[in-house]
Amino acid sequence: MKNIIGVRFKKLGKIYFFNPKYIHVRKGDKVIVETSQGEEIGEVVIPNRYVNDEKILEPLKKVIRIASYKDCKRYDECKKIEKVLRKNNISYFEKWKFHTGLFHVISSRKNSKCDIYIHSDSIERAKQALGIQTTK
Q1: How does pLDDT run along the chain (136 residues), one tens digit per residue?
Q2: Which residues lie across from 38 on neighbouring strands?
Q3: How far apart are CA 116 and CA 81, in angstroms?
């Protein structure tokens, strides 16, 4: 049997399972976990519990540590930056007379990157306005 915890990154988002190693967490604790996009902060929604090995489909990523006050403060700063970016981008798209919707703005825990997800009626006009040469 393996020890797992459930972590949620968004208020109504999906629950992801992680290997807490020897860290004991409670529901509502903030933890720093290893994800495919780097270190992220999330909230524990399912505290430590044991499950059968057969129920775990893939190797679990690790919990790095319980988030400190400094981590939580940094997370709040990132959320404020996201709000400013959302506001600035909406005014930018209005200036270009786009019929767009800004879906989501995500900044990383270390503020090393910021992803902006948009919806546009014309991808070519959006690329021209944003100065983008290629897209993924």
Answers
A1: 889 999 998 888 899 999 998 899 999 999 999 888 788 889 999 999 999 888 888 889 999 999 999 888 888 887 787 777 667 766 666 666 665 555 555 655 555 566 666 666 666 666 666 665 544 4
A2: 35
A3: 12
Are 5 and 63 contacting, i.e. CB atoms less than 8 angstroms apart? yes
The whole-angstrom separation of Cα 65 and Cα 32 is: 5
Cα separation, 37 vs 114, whole angstroms: 12
Provide φ and ψ at 50, rounded to 5°: -105, 135
Q: Which two tokens stand for residue 67?
A: 């988030």
Q: Tokens in use for 132?
A: 């983008």
pTM value > 0.85:
no
